[in-house]
Amino acid sequence: MNVLRYLPVLAAASAAPAFAVQYLSVEQAQKLMFPDATAFREQNLALSSSQMREVEKLSGLPARSVAWRVFGAYRGDTAIGFVVLDDVIGKFELISYAVGLNTDASIRQVEILAYRESHGGEIRNPAWRRQFVGKRAPAGLSIGEGIANISGATLSCTHLTDGVRRIAAIGQLLVKK
Amino acid sequence: MRKNFVATAVVAAFLTSPLVAQATEAELLARIEKLSAELEAVKAELKAGAQKTAAVEQRQQQIEAPAAAAASAPATVIGGYGEINYNRPTRNPAGAQTDVRRAVIGIEHRFDERTKLVSEFEWEHAIASAGDQGEAAIEQLYVERQFGNGMRGKAGLFLIPAGLLNTSHEPTAFYGVERNFVETAIIPSTWREAGVGLSGDFGEGFTWDTGLTTGFDLSKWDAASEEGRESPLGSIHQEGQLAKSRHLSVHGALNWRGVPGLLLGGSVFTGKAGHDTAGFAAPDARISVWDLHGRYTPGLWDLSAVYARGRIANIAALNASFGDEPAPVPSSFAGWYLQAAYQSFKSGDIALNPFVRYEQFNTASSFTNQATPDADHKVGTVGANLRIGEGVVLKADYQKFRGDSARDRLNLGVGFSY
User: Fold this and answer.
1) Lowest mean pLDDT segment, chosen from B13-22, B129-138, B304-313
2) From CA A171, how far away is CA B183, in angstroms rounded?
3) Which of A84, A92, A97, A113 has its CA nearest to residue A172?
């Protein structure tokens, strides 16, 4: 029966055009971030207004959205982390990305799923994305303060960094549950 | 699956029931009624289950719908940037000037996930008409297609990937009211050519660009004017306007961003510039420009350096034809700068970034004929960018021209980009 729950996701993924800018599917990103997970369960989050205020306070950014796409990563019955999906605007276009969070709300990994701008694809560099690993919101999760700028891609890397900081703040709510 | 299970259960219930022959009719009826009631209950439960599944699926679709819509929209995006500058020569206040330096409207349209159009329309100096000095120009106009292997191809009028400023020339992206001299006098920013280009990456932080485009038209050189002395390439660029294309130019750029915060790169552009123009004295003239650039942004620091050099070859006969005119074509021109900026203050969306820049450049560092090379220009700039959010910047700086103090000036500006 569990398979049924993922049918719409699978259908959407297979129906989507195979666009060139798509570097990773959601499933691929999940496996990359949690290679030892045996299952990923969709645990979408709807933030209450007080939770939104908490996210804003912690990240220093508008919480932006009530609904968040979250997957719990499980090894057997043990929760080992979360994968949160999001999109931010780079300069003109959307960057689709996924943030892997550990059970203590620290960042495990950041993966770019799709990037559409002509410039700034350098946010995909593993060395740049590694700067996020192990950090909890909000410390060290701003451009110039913990995350180095990418020359020629200032807007893309700033907006992505803000997005990750927001998700790291949401992560702290997830682990409180 | 579940229906089969229920049916089996019902059949099993009949089979395992006591022998029908031994039961009274009333008992049988009661049992059938009981079973029938149970069956109704199971049916109802199944129906409720199905409704619940449908509701869950619907909810999931609702959650996914915005994400799917977000991934494809928006198809057309309008952007823009502009700058309004004030320059006051400190030794000659009468020469103070205010100018709507440029106003640019950019429209990007995505035809599909792989194909888009990028355009930028620019007005310089506020008014463009027969009686005014302004100009209206197409700064970029190209279509770009993403290929399956991650490479991007483009065709149209696009920016040449030289130096640091050319492809990133919005006022919010550089320090100082005016663009630096090296990337206006040596690299003629905003430098664009029409043609085709290909970009991609090698992994490990390496990205590359290459292309085949229009080039310069040396027959436009005016030896009687000082324009060529201000920016040799700026005076003979074609900007996609009925551009002579007998000869095309090639370019390539390689950049490395393997360490967070660090960019190291270089570019080269070369092509013939005579275009078999009738009666032109330098039919084999070749123009080449190359640069090396680096930028490092550790923490709140922003350090950058550019070295650029240009060469114009096979022009001896052309220069000889100019006789005594004051501005022959130089064989080489070059320049470099070092710049350091630091974010000294940040509160909310306001950030103050003081900077210093030293640049040295020469638009005529050698000639083929007897003409004496120019002396190097040495300019020091000190100032600050005050950023308001990420779209607005207020700028102030002072520029000191060594050996030419009549040009020393104070600059103020406001710029925006969205």
Assistant:
1) B13-22
2) 45
3) A84
Contacts of A117 (CB under 8 A, 6+ apart): A90, A91, A92, A93, A95, A156
Pairing of strands A67-75, A45-46: antiparallel
pLDDT surpasses 70 at B50: no
CB count, 10 Å around CB of B197? 23
Residues 6+ apart with CB under 8 A from B11: none
DSSP state of B183: I
Strands in chain A per DSSP E: 39-42, 45-46, 67-75, 78-89, 94-101, 107-115, 142-143, 146-147
Answer whether A87 sits within 8 Å of B70, measured CB to CB: yes
Question: What's the rounded Cα separation, in Å, for the pair A116 and A93?
Answer: 6
Which segment of B6-10, B21-25, B100-104, B393-397 scores lowest on mean pLDDT? B6-10
Distance of alpha carbon B133 from alpha carbon B119, whole angstroms = 24
* pLDDT tens track for A32-52: 999 999 999 999 999 999 999
Handedness of CA B219, B223, B227, B230 (dihedral sign): positive
Pairing of strands B345-347, B377-388: unpaired
Angle B245-B246-B251 from CA coordinates, rounded to 5°: 60
ipTM (interface predicted TM): 0.77
Whether the CB-CB separation of B213 and B237 falls below 8 Å is answered with no
Alpha-carbon separation of residue B145 from A112, A118, A124, B126, B278 (angstroms): 20, 10, 19, 34, 38
* A window 72-101, beta carbon within 8 A of B: 85, 87, 91-94, 96
- The winner for highest mean pLDDT among A79-93, A121-135, B239-253 is B239-253
Distance in angstroms (rounded) separating the CA atoms of residues B252 and B199: 10
Residues in chain A: 177
Query: Residue B358 burial (CB < 10 Å; 0-12/13-18/19+)?
Result: middle
pLDDT surpasses 70 at B401: yes
Asked if B300 reaches chain A (Cβ–Cβ under 8 Å), the answer is yes
Cα separation, B386 vs B351, in Å, equals 6
How far apart CA B182 and CA B172 sit, in angstroms, is: 19
Helix (H, G, I), strand (E, B) or coil at A123: helix
Rounded Cα–Cα distance for residues A2 and B103 (Å): 57
Q: Considering only residues 103 to 122 of chain B, which have any Cβ-Cβ distance to chain A shorter than 8 Å?
A: 108, 110, 112-114, 118
Q: Which residues, in sequence order, are CB contacts of A120 under 8 Å at separation 6+?
A: A90, A91, A150, A152, A153, A155, A156, A157
